[in-house]
């Protein structure tokens, strides 16, 4: 069987960015009947304040089939990287492959579209192994065509599913309408000059507007907030709002279980929208484009989501 091998991605490329890349290449592998292997499904992030690098093997959160050996290789690579940045065995392997084979690179500024979205003559389908390097591979037609397979392939592990379903079922027994709220603070305070950052006061205003614009009963509506930082609940008077105190996987997939997602301009909220097939409303300044969302019932490519590069 033909094999597609994902080799490398920029340092700091976090979970949702990697998932958009991974599902696009996986859809391509299904289209051409190939096996997809990803050697870079892990986090390698440097703290901008302390300078300390953190590593996290993303395979441990998912039930991706036939990837135990790959996961062990990723674990070994991250352990060695913790000990010495100079060794970096996976990087050395990538350089070796690049010297011996033709690698397909996505670039950094523009999406590289794959079949069935677009035919790319640069990809030689006659070879037994196709190597991909980069994080900007996209496949909008492919992820639609193979949605069922993707949802199954990228399902989180059962222990996370149980926690997510338990929490969401309790909320649905109490409220008629559940709104997922994704709030990214942290690096957004400085990223792009802070233009994508929203404080709690601004977010409260948006949520209050949502109730009015969509004619929702505030007593029957619950806002389930997922954030990378603490949320001051006192800034949301009159709203039924709770914070999901889970890890990033629980946040991502519980957002996918809500009726609609409102949140920061990011790939995180966008992926939750795709996985759950629910609308995604993006925070905007100085005002929200509510009319744009009035007819949206399911996942769609949001023109106001500037960072996903659909």
From TrEMBL:
GO biological process: carbohydrate metabolic process
GO CC terms: membrane
InterPro entries: Glyco_trans_11
Entry keyword set: Glycosyltransferase, Transferase
MF GO annotations: galactoside 2-alpha-L-fucosyltransferase activity
Protein name: Glycosyl transferase family 11
């Amino acid at each position: 069987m033909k094999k597609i091998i994902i080799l490398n991605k920029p340092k700091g490329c976090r979970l949702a960015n990697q998932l958009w890349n991974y599902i696009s290449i996986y859809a391509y592998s299904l289209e051409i009947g190939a096996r997809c292997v990803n050697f870079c499904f892990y986090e390698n992030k440097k703290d901008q304040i302390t300078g300390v690098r953190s590593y996290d093997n993303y395979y441990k959160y998912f039930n991706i089939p036939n990837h135990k050996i790959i996961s062990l290789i990723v674990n070994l690579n991250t352990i060695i990287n913790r000990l010495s940045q100079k060794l970096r065995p996976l990087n050395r392997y990538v350089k070796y492959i690049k010297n011996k084979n033709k690698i397909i690179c996505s670039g950094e500024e523009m999406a590289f579209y794959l079949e069935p979205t677009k035919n790319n003559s640069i990809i030689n389908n006659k070879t037994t192994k196709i190597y991909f390097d980069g994080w900007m591979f996209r496949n909008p037609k492919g992820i639609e065509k193979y949605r069922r397979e993707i949802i199954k392939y990228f399902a989180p592990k059962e222990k996370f599913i149980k926690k997510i379903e338990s929490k969401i079922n309790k909320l649905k027994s109490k409220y008629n309408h559940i709104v997922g709220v994704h709030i990214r603070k942290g690096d957004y305070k400085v990223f792009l000059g802070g233009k994508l950052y929203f404080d709690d006061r601004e977010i409260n205003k948006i949520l209050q507007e949502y109730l009015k614009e969509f004619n929702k009963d505030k007593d029957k509506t619950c806002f389930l907030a997922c954030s990378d930082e603490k949320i001051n609940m006192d800034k949301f008077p009159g709203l039924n709002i709770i914070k999901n105190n889970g890890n990033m996987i629980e946040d991502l997939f519980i957002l996918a279980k809500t009726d609609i997602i409102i949140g920061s301009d990011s790939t995180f909220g966008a992926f939750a929208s795709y996985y759950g097939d629910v609308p995604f409303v993006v925070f905007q300044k100085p005002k929200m484009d509510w009319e744009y969302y009035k007819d949206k019932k399911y996942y769609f490519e949001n023109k106001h989501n500037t960072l996903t590069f659909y």
